């Protein structure tokens, strides 16, 4: 089941809310969330519910062992088992085929490459339960005594299948005792509608334009062979905007849904395109993932010592690999790691002295080139992309096809640029500073929400398949 679906919006969610709020019992409310979360997850692939349940059970047991023997060898064994189980589960489903494929390429063995379907959300809930066990071992959180409460945390449908990666420490108190206020309901529904608009009104439109420029994946993105230099750059920019609105749209809906049930998830995207350095970009882009690798991987001792650049290499190698079993994702991660290392060598003070226009040009060129690496999963296609960027495909600087596509989608492009910037929050901030204007802004916000919901719903009427991009990961 997906969020951007009329069945979810107008049946599943209302029924869930009614069942949740019809009782005041915290235990019953938790059971309601568990049942609806498992239904949500099992809607398309019921077979994978068992893996989710076992994953929750394993790390619940690991947490209890750590609680009982915090200083003993049993705690170390529990931590080791959590690492082996979660990473082994992830490797088995996500990377086995990739590993065999590359083993064949290196050794010529000719082994059959297994075609293993990836359980939806496994990259997210594996990291959540793993972070819980590590935090229990480090003494950062108290292990959960109730398996039902822990299962609710793992299976919570707002963030189950595509994040954000919600750490146990963030909502531990709310698992035990939470309340949903009028403010939570108001801001929750507003956030859901915002995310829905990002996905349906902007991201889906951008994806169509990208396909018209680069061609279909199954045809090897053949259109890039004849694309002009400006057309290729325009396509790369659109890919970046598309991914932003799709990824952040899902996170907005997840955060909004959490608010309805009294949970306050951390922000996952914070207007990343306003960044002035690549380091700042990653402090604003997919925050839950980048902070996970920072806190749990960066300072791992390598060959017995904490190595600054070795840890950085490992973080960005894993960040790329986490996104998919393909070399382009590994290159994408190391590509960003290279620029972050360069910025570390230059130093924060010197980076801040860079003229603002130059800083924005530098970051945007790096970012949109990065999205090109992310988009083209096959290496021959990626090579064609880089050739087209500088005209080595033998085509012109600009062409009429690109110009027509640009003019035909100019309002979508402008809207994407505007809403990727923190313009609305700035206007809201100024409005609330002036007496009387807050009411006008709130009224305008209600009208805008209604219009976005109506427009999104109308576009979803004939759209039966509307998955978010992070479902792939």
UniProtKB/TrEMBL annotation:
It comes from the Bacteria. The chain crosses the membrane at residues 7-26, 32-57, 77-96, 150-170, 223-245, 309-325, 359-376, 405-424, 436-461. Keywords: Acyltransferase, Cell membrane, Membrane, Transferase, Transmembrane, Transmembrane helix. GO terms for molecular function: acyltransferase activity. One of its GO terms (biological process) is alginic acid biosynthetic process. Coiled coil: none annotated. It is a multi-pass membrane protein. InterPro entries: Ac/AlaTfrase_AlgI/DltB, AlgI, MB_O-acyltransferase, MBOAT_fam. GO terms for cellular component: plasma membrane. It is found in: Cell membrane. Its main location: membrane. Belongs to the membrane-bound acyltransferase family. This is Putative alginate O-acetyltransferase AlgI. The lineage of its organism: Bacteria, Bacillati, Bacillota, Clostridia, Eubacteriales.
């Amino acid at each position: 089941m997906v969020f951007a679906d009329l069945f979810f919006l107008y049946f599943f969610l209302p029924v869930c809310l009614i069942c949740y709020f019809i009782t005041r019992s915290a235990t019953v409310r938790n059971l309601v969330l568990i049942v609806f979360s498992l239904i949500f997850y099992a809607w398309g692939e019921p077979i994978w519910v068992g893996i989710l349940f076992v994953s929750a059970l394993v790390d619940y047991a690991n947490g209890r062992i750590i609680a009982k023997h915090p200083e003993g060898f049993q705690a170390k064994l529990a931590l080791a088992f959590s690492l082996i189980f979660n990473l082994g589960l992830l490797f088995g489903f996500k990377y086995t085929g990739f590993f065999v494929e590359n083993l064949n390429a290196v050794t010529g063995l000719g082994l059959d490459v297994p075609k293993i379907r990836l359980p939806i959300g496994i990259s997210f809930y594996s990291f959540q339960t793993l972070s819980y066990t590590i935090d229990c071992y480090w003494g950062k959180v108290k292990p959960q005594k109730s398996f039902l409460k822990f299962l609710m945390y793992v299976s919570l449908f707002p963030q189950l299948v595509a994040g954000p990666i919600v750490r146990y420490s963030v909502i531990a108190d709310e698992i035990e005792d939470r309340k949903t206020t009028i403010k939570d309901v108001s801001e929750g529904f507003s956030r859901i509608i915002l995310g829905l608009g990002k996905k349906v009104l902007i991201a889906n439109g951008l994806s169509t334009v990208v396909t018209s420029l680069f061609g279909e994946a199954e045809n090897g993105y053949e259109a890039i062979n004849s694309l002009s230099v400006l057309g290729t750059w325009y396509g790369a920019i659109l890919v970046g905007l598309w991914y932003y609105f799709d990824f952040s749209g899902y996170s907005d809906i997840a955060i909004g849904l959490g608010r309805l049930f009294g949970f306050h998830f951390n922000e996952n995207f914070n207007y990343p395109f306003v960044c002035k350095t690549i380091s700042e970009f990653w402090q604003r882009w997919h925050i839950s993932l980048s902070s996970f690798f920072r806190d749990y991987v960066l300072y791992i001792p390598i060959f017995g010592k904490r190595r600054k650049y070795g840890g950085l290499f490992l973080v960005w190698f894993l960040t790329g690999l986490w996104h998919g079993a393909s070399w382009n994702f590994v290159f994408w991660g190391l590509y960003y790691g290279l620029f972050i290392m360069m910025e570390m060598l230059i130093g924060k003070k010197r980076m801040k002295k860079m003229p603002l226009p130059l800083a924005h040009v530098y970051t945007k060129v790096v970012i949109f080139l990065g999205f090109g690496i992310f988009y083209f999963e096959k290496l021959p296609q990626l090579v064609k992309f880089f050739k087209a960027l500088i005209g080595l495909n033998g085509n012109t600087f600009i062409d009429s096809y690109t110009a027509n596509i640009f003019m035909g989608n100019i309002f979508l492009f402008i809207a994407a640029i505007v809403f990727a910037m923190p313009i609305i929050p700035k206007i809201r901030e100024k409005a609330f500073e002036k007496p009387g204007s807050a009411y006008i802004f709130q009224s305008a916000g209600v009208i805008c929400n209604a219009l976005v919901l109506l427009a999104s719903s109308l576009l979803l009427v004939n759209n039966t398949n509307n998955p978010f991009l992070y479902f792939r990961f």
